[in-house]
Design goal:
There is one protein chain. The chain has 448 residues and is an alpha/beta fold. It has a domain of 205 residues: Rossmann fold (3-Layer(aba) Sandwich), CATH 3.40.50. Helices cover 44% and strands 17% of the residues. It is built from 18 helices and 14 strands. The strands form three sheets. The protein has a six-stranded mixed beta sheet with strand order 4-5-13-10-11-12, sandwiched between helices. Strand 6, helix 5 and strand 7 form a beta-alpha-beta unit. It is globular, with a radius of gyration of 21 Å. It starts with 12 loop residues before the first strand and ends with a helix. The mean pLDDT is 93. Bound molecules: pyridoxal-5'-phosphate. Pyridoxal-5'-phosphate (PLP) binds next to helix 10.
Length: 448
C-alpha cells in the first residue's frame, strides 16, 4: 500500500469560482452544494501524487487507488478508517478498459446500479453525507429535480441510507419508462413526485422550497445537485484506474470524454493536475457544441439546448465551464492546449454506432459513440502515436429502443434492468403548485 503524505496542515479547503477569499470545508461544500455567490466550489489547492508512485499503480486495486486520491484531496477532513469505509461502499463496482483495436480503448463506466457513470458521483456523495450526518436527530431531506438520468443514480446512491430521505421530482410522461422505474420502484427512503409539468417546473419547485424560510425552519433540506463537488471527486478516481490498466502499453494516453455539463472532463483535468500523465483531453459533444466552439474561437457563447439522440449531453450552458476557467486562470491559450473539442450530428452518431458494431463487434450507446467519432477525428492528427481511451458513459440497454432501431438488432438487457420491469411504480402525482408540494413535504417529514 502506498501512502500519500498530507501536504498542508489544514484539511481540504474550497472556495468559490466567484470569490477566492472565502474558504469552506469539504463538509460545508458538500451540504451547501452551491456557494451563495452562484459560483462553484473548487479546491484551493490540488495535491500532487508523488511521481515515483505512478509506475507502481498496477500493484493496487481500484479501491486502493480511489482511497489514496481521496485522501490526498481531503487531506485529513475524514479520518482514514472512515474514508476507507466510504470508498469501499461507494466504489463497489469495476471500471474496466476494453480494447477495440491497438490504439483504441473503451473505459466502461456503466457497471453501477443505474448503469451510467453518474453512479460513481451519486454513491460517493451519499456515503459522504451519511458520514457527516450520523449524529443528528431529525432526518436530512435531499431534494432533487431530474430530467431522467441523474434521478436514477441519486435514488440508487441514497437507497437505504440511514437518516436521509430523498425526494425526487420528475416531469410526468417525459422520462423514459425505464428511467421512471429507476425513480419509483425503490421505496423506503426514496420518494418520487410525479409533476404534471416540465423539468423546468420541477426545478422551480425545488428552488422555491430552498428559498422558503418557514419550510426550512421545520425541515433540514439539502440538494444532490450535479455540480456538487462530492460528485466530481470520485470521477477523478477512474482516470487513475484507467491509466493503471493501460500503463503497460507504454503509450501516451488521450482521454476522450462525451460531454454535457463537463463534470467528467473537469475531473480529468484535476487528475492531470494531481500528476496523472495525460497527453491530451478530447471533448466530444453532440450538436450542443458550445465548448468545441470556445476551444476553436475563444468565444463562449451559451445557447438554448438542442434535443439530440445523446440526450444526457443536451446542455447549452455547461455549468462546469466556470471550473475549467478557474483551473487555468481563464487563459484560452492554455485551455485549448489541454483540450481538443469536436461536435457531431445525430446522423453521424448513428453511423458510428453501426460502424463500431460492424468493425469491433461492440455495442456502444449514443453518448459513447459521440466519443468514438471524436477519437477517430483526433487520430487523423496524432496517427498511431497515442492510445485513445473513450469513456462509455452509459450501458446501451439504457437507450434500448434507439440502440435496437439503429443496429437493427435485439440487445441483451442486464439482469438488474430486467428485474426492474416487473416492479411496481410508486409515485405521488402533484400539480405545478408550490403550496401543494410544501404540504406533502410537511405531512411526510415534519417531526420525524
Ligand atoms: C451525464 C451524462 C453525460 C455528460 O456528462 P457531463 O459530466 O455532464 O459532461 C454523458 N453521458 C451520459 C450517459 C450521462 O448520463
Amino acid at each position: 500500500m502506498f501512502h500519500v503524505e498530507h501536504l498542508t496542515k489544514p484539511p481540504m479547503q474550497l472556495n468559490s469560482t466567484n470569490n477566492p477569499s472565502l474558504l469552506f470545508s469539504f463538509e460545508e461544500a458538500l451540504f451547501q452544494g452551491l456557494p451563495e455567490d452562484k459560483g462553484l466550489f473548487m479546491p484551493v489547492q490540488i495535491p500532487e501524487i508523488p511521481k515515483e508512485l505512478i509506475p507502481q499503480l498496477d500493484k493496487y486495486t481500484f479501491q486502493e487507488i480511489a482511497f489514496q486520491v481521496a485522501k490526498a484531496l481531503l487531506n485529513g477532513e475524514i479520518p482514514d478508517k472512515d474514508l476507507q469505509k466510504i470508498i469501499e461502499s461507494a466504489i463497489s463496482f469495476p471500471a474496466p478498459v476494453v480494447m477495440l483495436d491497438d490504439h483504441t480503448a473503451v473505459l466502461e463506466l456503466f457497471h453501477g446500479p443505474s448503469l451510467a457513470f453518474k453512479d460513481f458521483g451519486a454513491r460517493f456523495m451519499a456515503k459522504a453525507m451519511a458520514y457527516f450526518n450520523k449524529e443528528t436527530e431529525s432526518d436530512l431531506i435531499i431534494l432533487v429535480a431530474t430530467s431522467g438520468d441523474t434521478g436514477g443514480a441519486v435514488a440508487a446512491g441514497f437507497y437505504q441510507t440511514p437518516g436521509i430521505q430523498v425526494v425526487i421530482l420528475y416531469p410526468s410522461g417525459k422520462v423514459s419508462p425505464l428511467q421512471e422505474k429507476q425513480l419509483t420502484t425503490l421505496g423506503e427512503n426514496i420518494h418520487a413526485f410525479e409533476v404534471e409539468g416540465t423539468f423546468d417546473d420541477c426545478q422551480a419547485l425545488v428552488k422555491e422550497a430552498f428559498l422558503d424560510q418557514t419550510l426550512r425552519s421545520k425541515l433540514r433540506l439539502s440538494s444532490a445537485n450535479s455540480i456538487n463537488i462530492a460528485r466530481l471527486i470520485p470521477q477523478i478516481f477512474y482516470y487513475w484506474e484507467a491509466y493503471k490498466q493501460v500503463s503497460g502499453m507504454g503509450k501516451p494516453v488521450v482521454f476522450v470524454v462525451p460531454s454535457g455539463n463537463f463534470g467528467n472532463l473537469t475531473a480529468g483535468l484535476i487528475a492531470q493536475k494531481m500528476g496523472l500523465p495525460v497527453h491530451c483531453f478530447v471533448a466530444a459533444t453532440n450538436a450542443n457544441d458550445i465548448i468545441p466552439e470556445y476551444l476553436n474561437t475563444g468565444l463562449y457563447n451559451p445557447q438554448p439546448s438542442i434535443p439530440t439522440l445523446s440526450n444526457a449531453m443536451d446542455v447549452g450552458n455547461p455549468s462546469n465551464f466556470a471550473r475549467i476557467l478557474n483551473l487555468y486562470g481563464s487563459t484560452w491559450n492554455i485551455i485549448k492546449d489541454h483540450i481538443t473539442g469536436y461536435a457531431f450530428s445525430d446522423i453521424e452518431t448513428e453511423q458510428a454506432m453501426r460502424q463500431i458494431f460492424l468493425h469491433h463487434n461492440y455495442i456502444m450507446d449514443p453518448h459513447g459513440a459521440v466519443g468514438y467519432l471524436a477519437w477517430r477525428k483526433y487520430q487523423e492528427k496524432i496517427k498511431n502515436e497515442a492510445l485513445g481511451i473513450i469513456f462509455e458513459t452509459a450501458h446501451p440497454a439504457k437507450f434500448l429502443e434507439d440502440v435496437e432501431r439503429i443496429l437493427s438488432q435485439k440487445i441483451d438487457i442486464p439482469y438488474n434492468l430486467q428485474s426492474l420491469q416487473a416492479k411496481e411504480k410508486r409515485s405521488t402525482p402533484i400539480a405545478v403548485n408550490y403550496l401543494e408540494f410544501k404540504m406533502h413535504l410537511l405531512e411526510a417529514f415534519e417531526k420525524k
